[in-house]
Please model this.
Amino acid sequence: MSSQIVRQKFIALSDPARLDIVRRLASGPKTAGELAGPYPVSRPAVSRHLRVLREAGIARAEVRGREWWYSVDPAALQEMQAWLEEVRGMWSTALASLKDYVEEQDG
Amino acid sequence: MSSQIVRQKFIALSDPARLDIVRRLASGPKTAGELAGPYPVSRPAVSRHLRVLREAGIARAEVRGREWWYSVDPAALQEMQAWLEEVRGMWSTALASLKDYVEEQDG
DNA sequence: CCAATATGTAACATATATGTTACATATTGG
DNA sequence: CCAATATGTAACATATATGTTACATATTGG
Model:
């Protein structure tokens, strides 16, 4: 998983509208119209947000007639979790080494 | 964990320099100077990135003399993981309900 | 067939983030 | 004490993201 790819996903979730859209999508697939409904911004603006989510791989769209049904891709979220887990793992290791070093110095 | 707070963390990791800084910090605490070293941008620019990471709670700084020692806060990363896990959990539940519904319709 | 509907895209204006240079502050070493 | 060092902050220029309006495209329902 390249750094570029994981970063694109962090960008995708860094906007309040997109973060909220993803949260709402978690309760099941929705059309672009349903998703745009609750926001004060225009529908084309939401359409752009949906594109950002699609391009980051966080959302997918299935075109059914004139409706686009959006859903989240849990694998994309899992990739983000994996990145975070990797950093936390490295940090634990680093902490352990640091502890050994300090103990060696002291006693 | 408010949506605002988790979003600030996603913003923090949406920049390539900051993503890289966090990755490098995982191998152990580093000074601002060490962190700025490898980048083509100016040191004040890196200083700003470090502030963004601090304000998001992802990095902490300990001032020792004239050096600022930075380290990652694994708890912040864990909060992000928890948010992602929550969405994934909701999605599994939604999928299960959808499956039940479809089965009811078909048979 | 055609008006209504659902939606994406283009072009542009504006808000926001990022970079630079200049500067302020505090600490260290002789 | 004071020059060198480490670092943050301020002010401003510029790149990037986001919003709007106008438009294009495809589908549906009568």
